[in-house]
Amino acid sequence: MALDVTEQAKPPRAVFVPFMMGHHFGVPFHQQLQRRVIVEALDLLTMAETSGTILKLPVTWADARREGIEIERQMGLRD
Amino acid sequence: MMETSNQAEQLRPGLWSTVNERYPGSMITNDTFVPLARPTKPLHDSRLSFVSTAGVQPKGSLPFDVVHPVGDYTFRRVPSTSRPSDLEIHQIKYPTSGANRDINVIFPIERLQELAADGVLGSLTPDFFSFIGYNMDPERLEREFAEEIAEAVAAEGADIVLLAPA
To answer: In angstroms, what separates the C-alpha of B60 from chain A's closest C-alpha?
Structure first.
C-alpha cells in the first residue's frame, strides 16, 4: 500500500505496511504474518478514536522476506 | 500540493503525485474524513466481508478487462469458502509474483477462514468481492461503482468489512 495515496483518499481507518505492491498481507507461506496484518486491522476497528487513523505496523519488507525464505526452506521449497 | 508522509516509509515514494501529474484527476483525493462508524457488535459476533482490488476471481468467471483505457467497473463475487486453487488473478497493474505462489499475500482468504473457524470472527459473508484497481475515472468509481459494491456487501449481512488495495 502506498502511504501517500492512503493519505489523499482519507479512509476512516487504515493499516500501513511497507511491503511491495501486491503483497499487502506479507510474503508467500508466512501464515503468521498474513494473519497478523488482518488482526491488526480488526483491532483498529475498536482502537481507532478518530477518523483518519493510520496504523503503521513496525515491520519491514526485508524482515518479511527473510522470514519467508526461512519458512520456504523449512517447507522444502528452497535450498 | 498537500504534504505527504516521509517518503522513506513507502517502497514507491511519491506515487500519488507521480500518477496524478501524469493523469490529472485520476487519483482520489478527499479533503475531509468521513465520520467514524463504530462497530456495533464484538468481533466474535460480527460477520466480516472482504473487498479487494486485486482482480482475484473464481476460475471460469468473466475475466476483468485489464486493457480497457478507463478501466473495468464491474466486480466479481468470490465465495468465501473458496480454496486458493478455485481462484485466479486477472490484473496486470501490480506484481503477482507472490500471489501466484500463495494467493493469501494479496487475497488472504485462508487466513480469514481460519479466523472465523477459530472464533475470532463470528462469520464470513457468503461472498467476498473483487475488482481491479485500474479505474481512471475516480468520480464514477466513488459515486457509482463503490456504491454498487457497498450495496452488495450490505445485502450479505456484513457487520464489518476489510478493504484491501493491491
So the answer is: 22
Cβ(B128)–Cβ(B109) below 8 Å = yes
B164 contacts in chain A (CB < 8 Å): 24-25
| Cβ contact, residue pair B162, A41, below 8 Å | yes
For residue A7, the enclosing domain spans 3-74
Task: Give me the percent of chain A exceeding a pLDDT of 70.
Answer: 99
CA distances from B65 to A13, B46, B75, B93 (A): 30, 34, 11, 12
- In a domain, residue A15? The reply is yes
Of A16, A19, A51, the CB nearest to B35: A51
Task: Answer yes or no: are the C-beta atoms of B57 and B130 closer than 8 Å.
Answer: yes
Do the domain assignments include residue A9?
yes
How far apart (Å, rounded) are the C-alpha atoms in residues B55 and B117? 26
Residue A79 lies in a domain: no
pLDDT digits (tens, 9 = 90+) for B30-72: 889 989 999 999 999 999 999 999 999 999 999 999 999 889 9
ipTM of the complex: 0.96
Q: How confident is the model at residue B1 (pLDDT cuts 50, 70, 90)?
A: very low
Chain B residues within 8 A of A27 when measuring between CB atoms: 98, 105
Number of domains in chain A: 1
The more confidently predicted of residues B19 and B36 is B36
Which residues in chain B are contacts of A67 at CB distance < 8 A?
A: none
Torsion of CA B92, B96, B97, B103, to 10 degrees: -150
A47 lies in some domain: yes
Which H or E run includes B110? helix B109-117
B13 or B86, which is more confident: B86
